[in-house]
Every structure is written in C-alpha cells, then in structure tokens.
Amino acid sequence: MQASDIVGSLAAALTTVSFIPQALHTFQTKDVSGISLGMYSTFTVGVSLWLVYGVLLQAWPIVIANTITLSMASAILAMKLRYK
Fold it and tell me: Which of 3, 18, 20, 60 is least crowded, fewest Cβ atoms below 10 Å from its Cβ?
C-alpha cells in the first residue's frame, strides 16, 4: 500500500468517525433545532460531489467514507425537514 493510500484511508476514517456522534445524537433525540437547514443542505451536496469525485478517480477510501457520511447526512437532513 502506498503512503498516499494510507494517508487517504486514515483521513477518510477519521472524518467519517467524527460525524457519528452528531448523527447518533440526532437520531436518538430527533432534536434538529440546532441544525442549520442551509448548512446541512450545502454539506450534503458537497459530500455527494466528493462521492462522485471518488468514483471518477476510483479512490475507494473517498468512495467508502463519503457513502457512509452521505447516508448519515441525508438522514439528518430528512429529519430536519420533517421535524422543523
């Protein structure tokens, strides 16, 4: 494995794992009052674009991390829209 793959995998794992506590808290409490609709909408689109970028490059750490983050961000965004 090349050094760039190791760094990319570690970065992808850390940024994805850092998102999990917020997602779990939001799923458990359904409290979305502190979440900005504009920020989460922009974030979700950005993660989607990172996912496409990873697919185009066939960079699997980017693809896997952004697939996981996109699923959590999309669920939180849906809850924000539902539980305003």
Answer: 3
Position 70 scores a pLDDT of 96
Q: What is the pTM of this model?
A: 0.86
Which domain covers residue 74, as residue numbers?
A: 3-83
Given a contact cutoff of 8 angstroms between Cβ atoms, the answer to whether 36 and 81 are in contact is: no
Number of domains present in the structure of the chain: 1
Location of structure tokens 């995998």: 9
The full length of the chain comes to 84
| CATH assignment of the domain containing 40 | 1.20.1280.290
Nearest to 35 by CA among 47, 23, 45, 49: 23
